[in-house]
Specification:
Structural class: alpha+beta
Helix content: 25-40%
CATH topology of the largest domain: Rossmann fold
Strand content: 15-25%
Distance between the termini: 31 Å
Number of helices: 12
CATH superfamily of the largest domain: HUPs
Length: about 425
């Protein structure tokens, strides 16, 4: 029923095991394969969302199934924040939990099948999704340090049910699946049966259409990568790891091509904006030269500064704490919410501290005398959002060095800043 050969060299196999029909069939197929062929270690993961009282009994059922098959089971409890789309919120925390479990090169198998593919296409069509939303669920994609694999996409729900009955498998029937207030359940229970009465191959044909759309998206992604390669040129070396694009390069493209490049770029960082939300891109581009526009997204925000747009997420959305004494400058100093710093060269042995701009700071620049720090940062074209969190090295009240700007030092030392990560915003 499935081909597992491409993933035999993975360090470990995991299966997302809800206990439902799809994952139960997949678990038995994987276990049967592992019994008769050399295969990586197989483990199961059950995510307990705590959204309904019936779910409290599911881990015990999953444990019984896994013990019978001699497979280790890990139960992960997660919390789902109430929001407009409970389904989306549950999915987000579920995949975040999977990401934490996977090690480098590990594989997570999930049980989505052909009917899921068809339902997803129809659901997104009804929501007015673009090509990126309509494209097929990929058979494999990156997840955390490993990969997510969907080996059942070529199988229908009926085929899985026939297999389960022939093998006399038992599985959980989630009572929420009968609640047609959820859009997907309504499609599955009310709409698809009617479609299949009129068009028996509706599920198969819709899934094939999703694959065609996926191929078209692949071509647009290739175009986006080329456009982004140009826009990423010229990134300041002083701020490694901080994602930015040249605004003039992007705005020189046709509007549809701009959106295509940005959708590709943003899709790896946040949930994509809907059609109405794209007005934020126009506002970002068209704001006055001295303005500081912000385009906010679900998982971060885009800012414009120094002719580039910058993606900020995670620690970057919080202000760093105040000054810190640096007792032992021979060791790096962790800055809560703001990365870390280390110093090289001849720095004073004691009395060092890291602080942030308050206004009015001056620096004795070799060969130039005392200079206002604000003016020096303007000369260095430091983005405005960086200035409040740019580490400054002081000895007492004397400013010695500005992080990552070799020309802005007063003493024979350099302050090196490891910037806070944007990884929280990568998806």
């Amino acid at each position: 029923m499935i081909n597992l050969t491409p993933w035999l060299n993975a360090p470990a196999w995991y299966i997302a095991f809800s206990g439902g029909l799809d994952s139960t069939v997949l678990l038995h197929l994987l276990a049967d394969y592992a019994r008769h062929h050399p295969a990586p270690p197989l483990r199961a993961i059950h995510i307990h969302h705590g959204l309904q009282s019936a779910a409290d009994a599911w881990p015990a059922h999953c444990q019984t199934v896994c013990e019978r098959l001699r497979i280790d089971l890990q139960v992960v409890h997660v919390q789902v924040r109430p929001c407009a789309s409970l389904e989306q919120a549950a999915r987000d925390v579920r995949y975040a939990a999977f990401s934490q479990v996977l090690g480098p090169g590990d594989i997570l198998f999930t049980g989505q099948h052909r009917d899921d593919q068809a339902e997803t296409l129809l659901l997104r069509l009804l929501r007015g999704a673009g090509l990126r939303g309509l494209a097929a669920m990929p058979a494999q994609r990156a997840l955390g340090q490993g990969s997510l694999v969907r080996p059942l996409l070529g199988c229908s729900r009926q085929q899985l049910q026939d297999y389960a009955q022939a093998q006399r498998l038992s599985w959980i029937e989630d009572p929420s699946n009968a609640d047609t207030q959820f859009a997907r359940n309504y499609l599955r229970g009310e709409v698809f049966p009617q479609l299949q009465l009129r068009w028996p191959q509706a599920g198969q044909n819709l899934a094939r259409a999703a694959e065609h759309l996926g191929e078209a998206l692949g071509l647009l992604d290739e175009l986006a990568r080329g456009d982004l390669a140009q826009a990423q040129e010229g990134a300041p070396v002083a701020w490694p790891g901080l994602d930015s694009l040249d605004l003039a390069t992007l705005t020189a493209l046709l509007p549809a091509r701009q959106r295509n490049a940005l959708q590709y770029w943003l899709s790896r960082r946040t949930r994509l904006p809907d059609t109405r939300h794209w007005a934020g891109w126009a506002d970002l581009c068209n704001a006055a030269a001295d303005a500081r526009p912000v385009w906010r997204h679900a998982d971060g925000q885009l800012l414009r500064s120094q002719g580039r747009i910058w993606w900020l997420s995670g620690d970057w959305l919080q202000q760093p704490r105040g000054e810190q004494a640096w007792v032992n400058p021979a060791l790096p100093l962790l800055l809560p919410g703001n990365g870390s710093v280390c110093v090289t060269g001849a720095a004073a042995a004691g009395g060092l501290r890291i602080a942030y701009r308050q206004g009015g700071e001056v620096l004795d620049v070799p060969g130039r005398g005392r200079r206002d720090l604000k003016r020096l940062l303007n000369e260095q074209q430091v983005p405005h959002f960086l200035r409040p969190r740019l580490p400054l090295l002081f000895h007492g009240e004397r400013l010695l060095a500005v992080a990552n700007l070799p020309g802005l030092v007063q003493a024979d030392c350099q302050l090196h800043w490891q910037l806070p990560t944007n990884a929280q915003g990568l998806s």
